[in-house]
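queue> holo job accepted (pyridoxal-5'-phosphate)
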Amino acid sequence: MPFVGYYNGEFIESNTTPVPIEERGHQFGDGVYEVVRVYGGRPFLLDWHLERMENSLRAIQIANPFDRHAWVELINEAVRRSGEPESTVYWQVTRGIAPRNHVFPSANSVVSLTVRPQPPAKPANDIEAGPADHPLPPLVAWPDERWSNAFVKSINLLPNVIAKEVAHRLHAQEAMLVREGTITECSGSNVWFVKHGELYTHPTNRYILPGITRRFVLDLARESGVPVHEQALQLSDLKDVDEVFVTSTTQEIQMIGEIVVPVSQEQALHHLPSDIPSSLVESKEEFKTLWKMSAAPTVGSKLKQKFSETVHRIQDGEVTLAVRN
Ligand SMILES: Cc1ncc(COP(=O)(O)O)c(C=O)c1O
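queue> job finished
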């Protein structure tokens, strides 16, 4: 049973439609979500995801319906039912079902969850051959139009959805979000830069989602002796950058080959997806290259290699994670 669904206390079939019309997640986007990757039948870094979910729920005052133990039981049961060793589990917690009114109701919060198969990521040696043989995907710089509490993993994803659609139409990996000149993160991942062998990524504050993969990669970098700066970069800093990659639960570590930016930022702010050209190739005049990879990534490929080795060692119980506060 590859697809597993769960809504408000019951496992459901994929073709059922359980969400009541007065569900606040559906009407207001009033809820939070999480996604965990399952490797070899075991949810990866689940404790870190549950900790982040608790922070998101607390930030918007939604009651957590389960304790840690009950969450682990539910997620493991869903994974067991799916029988898929390689999958992703998404879950949402909403403020519940109540007559439409912006004011918080006294309803119980509601949990929905799905498990879907996830194909394994490309192996690290895919990127070793360098850009000539394996062109790496671009990023497109795009205005960060999200609210100022991006640390909450809210189900309200409209600015992310639009930015990702732009990236998709341009055949880019991601939209790299820029808030008043500062690079924050991407529409669905954190972004990293390598300068002179040292790593740079935006600090964890309210303007980015504290990625679980980001946290894991920070540990891997420190273990590997790569100096790390949790420091934001400006678009203008890209001229000194040697490598770029993005990280997320579903993309793991993805190397980037080029960063493009709309020629007119002003124009980009008013672009709706219908105006976006269908690929970068077709839109040479509207986008200009800000950064292009000049050599095969060394720091990125080392971390990607270490990422997959460590995942397997953790899953095999050979190493436990030292949890940082
Ligand atoms: C906006 C945003 N930033 C960063 C990430 C990466 O977070 P994680 O590594 O926990 O998947 C995501 C993942 O969904 C995201 O949506």
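queue> The longest helix spans residues 299-315.
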